[in-house]
Design the sequence.
């Protein structure tokens, strides 16, 4: 029996149903579905199924509520059909409506992302994932003040068992079944529970003895209206759950603007300021001490800030900080997390706004606890100097090079001992110390290690930031190389070693290529010449040969530094090149040159010859992309590597352009130039026939020739282009618009002179 009642109690809480006090009826006929509600029974049945309760247990629960077996079967059929006809999303939505506290939180919306601000604290309101909304699913605090629209759930357990869901009306009271009306508005949840117990004791005497226990739950919060004013990022009126606190609303409104305060946020209730919130207490200490629960008609007011100070430099959190009138410099440094690891802690620099110009102050460490920063101050914490007070450096041919501590009376010999001594490769006769003296002048102090080891009086006392360098003997030697080029796999420069043979050098170069001439390996060498005069001969040449296995026939010959080795290639073992053929050819493509004397006509024959549409007279030959101007029919052109041949289609037209009446293409029917010019309407007034020329299809150009009064015009061929240039006439040049006036003046003067002479 108790197990069934426990299941029933859990299910009733999960679906949030309001079932009147009931007693097990004496007969099943007393059940009235309108009393409990079929929707509530359906929710109870569905939750029981989801909890995995057996069918027999569910039937027992319904039987205890007065549902007989026949009624249960009818309800079950309707419930099954309802589940089939209802989509999963609708079921989830219905469950949300009937589940938990049933409170509406739609007014708690995520604040839109605002830009990051250099002012400390503003970033808290820029996190889009931080809603900072109240958790309305937690149990209500006992000090919560009840008001109209709050919904209470009264649960009796023990001897008497019942559940009631009651809402506080606009007049502030609830009507408890069998117990009557009780006013709860303005009471805390704890005080309301005591009042309800006293009210219900007359109906349920077992409440006095403890055999019946009353549980009062706040199942739904009322909605309150709160206003936000002043320098708020999102001012206005807000409807929020009654459990909300001032911190919930601060985030919802986006906090203050750049001009608003975070240190003096005011909570106004009934036209009186009841609290001042310093948001820095939460940001710096995590304290919710002033997180006051809001009430209906409260006002949150953001005044303007009073003091902003910019802190930069070697601190852990540089930013713009809002200070109160009592915050000193040490408090500001604490807000910033203190000094950084590299900070200079003895003094800070402060740049202030004066009446007409800026001023600068140095505040020493002893004044940090008393100095009051002013609005607009810019405070800079410097870093400590990067130089070292007691460091020397040694490098080069030393066992353990690096930085070392400068101790008292540290000398060059002692530093070398500290660094593990010198290496065997050290150059003993010369080393040096780089030093900056007291006048900040750079000095170079040289020493001889050989003499230093013999004579203690030559030891040098080191000073701060001295840098000692001991060179290696190898670094002072000239770089010894031999150079290999030609028919080797890896040509280049290789390090020379004493006793190196020609075979060694060829092996370093990866061996010979397949087209290498084994019998012609040339070695070029600079002869030693100590004379002061210019020598005529600057290179000696040696010709050697090797076998395919890189065995030299001259085992005595050795290489010298700076030798240059050239491996020759077989003359006829390389491709001469390719020729590309395109256009009206039977087999266009790229053809290798077979013979050094091969002509363009030979290549055309290898490519199958011209198609019926090709014109040998109009063939174009390009070398390195530039048109070769030649008459293919009159010259035997020897083809070259990477030449290109293009055979155009036979073109029976002649183009006439330039200073003619009608520029056009004329069908080829004559080799006379004047024929085509007349066909184009003749030469215009601006044209000159004597300077006309013909450009042939192969790129050649022929001009009109002159001899005394005779002209010889070039012959026209199919595909040619006749050009008649426009040239300004001599008379037009003479009589221009600029000198007409001068000519008229001269003529007038001449006529006047003639008249005077006749008289």
Sequence:
């Amino acid at each position: 029996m108790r197990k069934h009642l426990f299941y029933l109690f859990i299910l009733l809480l999960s679906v949030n149903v309001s079932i009147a006090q009931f007693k097990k009826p004496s007969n099943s006929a007393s059940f009235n579905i309108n009393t409990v509600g079929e929707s509530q029974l359906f929710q109870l049945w569905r939750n029981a199924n989801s909890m995995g309760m057996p069918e027999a247990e569910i039937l027992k629960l319904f039987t205890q509520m007065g549902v007989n077996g026949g009624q249960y079967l009818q309800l079950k059929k309707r419930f099954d059909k309802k589940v089939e006809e209802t989509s999963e999303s609708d079921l989830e939505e219905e469950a949300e409506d009937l589940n938990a506290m049933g409170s509406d939180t739609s007014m708690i919306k995520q604040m839109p992302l605002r830009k990051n601000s250099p002012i400390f604290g503003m970033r808290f309101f820029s996190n889009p994932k931080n809603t900072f909304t109240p958790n309305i699913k937690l149990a209500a605090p006992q000090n919560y003040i009840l008001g109209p629209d709050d919904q209470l759930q009264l649960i009796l357990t023990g001897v008497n068992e019942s559940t009631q869901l009651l809402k506080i009306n606009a007049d502030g009271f609830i009507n408890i079944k069998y117990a009557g009306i009780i006013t709860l508005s303005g009471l805390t949840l704890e005080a309301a529970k005591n009042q309800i117990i006293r009210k219900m004791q007359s109906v349920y005497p077992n409440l006095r003895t403890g055999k019946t226990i009353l549980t009062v739950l706040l199942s739904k919060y009322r909605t309150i209206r709160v206003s936000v004013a002043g320098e708020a990022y999102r001012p206005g009126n807000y409807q929020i759950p009654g459990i909300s606190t001032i911190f919930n609303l601060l985030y919802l409104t986006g906090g203050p603007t750049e001009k608003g305060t975070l240190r003096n946020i005011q909570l106004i209730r009934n036209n009186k300021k009841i609290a001042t919130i310093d948001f820095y207490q939460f940001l710096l200490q995590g304290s919710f001490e002033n997180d006051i629960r809001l009430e209906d008609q409260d006002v949150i007011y953001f005044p303007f800030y009073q003091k902003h100070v910019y802190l930069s430099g070697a601190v852990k959190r540089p930013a713009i900080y809002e200070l109160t009138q009592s915050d000193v410099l040490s408090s500001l440094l604490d807000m910033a997390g203190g000094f950084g690891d590299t900070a200079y802690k003895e003094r800070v620099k402060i740049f202030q706004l004066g009446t007409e110009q800026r001023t600068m102050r140095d505040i020493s460490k002893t004044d940090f606890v008393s100095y009051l920063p002013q609005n607009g101050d810019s405070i800079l914490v410097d870093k400590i100097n990067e130089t070292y007070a007691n460091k020397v450096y040694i490098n080069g041919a030393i066992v353990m090079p690096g930085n070392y501590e400068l101790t008292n009376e540290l000398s060059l010999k002692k530093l070398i001992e500290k660094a593990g001594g010198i290496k065997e490769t050290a150059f003993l006769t010369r080393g040096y110390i780089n030093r900056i003296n007291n006048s900040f002048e750079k000095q170079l102090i040289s020493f001889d290690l050989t003499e230093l080891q013999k004579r203690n009086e030559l030891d040098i006392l080191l000073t701060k930031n001295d840098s000692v360098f001991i060179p290696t003997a190898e670094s002072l030697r000239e770089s010894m190389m031999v150079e290999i080029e030609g028919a080797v796999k890896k040509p280049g420069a290789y390090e020379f070693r004493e006793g190196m043979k020609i075979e060694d050098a060829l092996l370093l170069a990866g061996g010979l290529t397949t087209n290498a001439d084994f019998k012609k390996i040339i070695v070029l060498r600079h002869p030693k010449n100590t004379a002061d005069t210019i020598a005529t001969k600057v290179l000696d040449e040696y010709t050697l040969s090797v076998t395919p296995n890189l065995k030299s026939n001259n085992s005595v010959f050795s290489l010298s530094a700076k030798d240059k080795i050239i491996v020759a290639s077989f003359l006829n073992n390389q491709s001469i090149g390719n020729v590309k053929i395109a256009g009206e050819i039977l087999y266009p493509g790229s053809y290798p040159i077979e013979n050094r004397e091969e002509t363009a006509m030979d290549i055309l024959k290898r490519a199958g010859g011209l198609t019926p549409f090709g014109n040998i007279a109009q063939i174009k030959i390009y070398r390195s992309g530039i048109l070769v101007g030649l008459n293919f029919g009159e010259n035997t052109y020897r083809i070259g590597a990477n030449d290109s041949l293009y055979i155009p289609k036979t073109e029976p037209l002649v183009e006439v352009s330039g200073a003619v009446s009608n520029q056009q293409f004329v069908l080829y029917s004559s080799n006379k130039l004047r024929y085509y010019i007349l066909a184009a309407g003749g030469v215009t007034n601006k044209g000159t026939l004597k300077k006309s020329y013909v450009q042939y299809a192969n790129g050649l150009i022929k001009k009109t020739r002159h001899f005394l009064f005779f002209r010889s015009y070039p012959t026209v061929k199919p595909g040619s282009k006749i050009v008649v240039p426009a040239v300004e006439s001599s008379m037009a040049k003479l009589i221009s618009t600029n000198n007409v006036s001068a000519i008229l003046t001269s003529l007038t003067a001449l006529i006047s002179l003639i008249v005077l002479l006749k008289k």
Remarks:
- The radius of gyration is 54 Å.
- Residues 740-758 form the longest helix (19 residues).
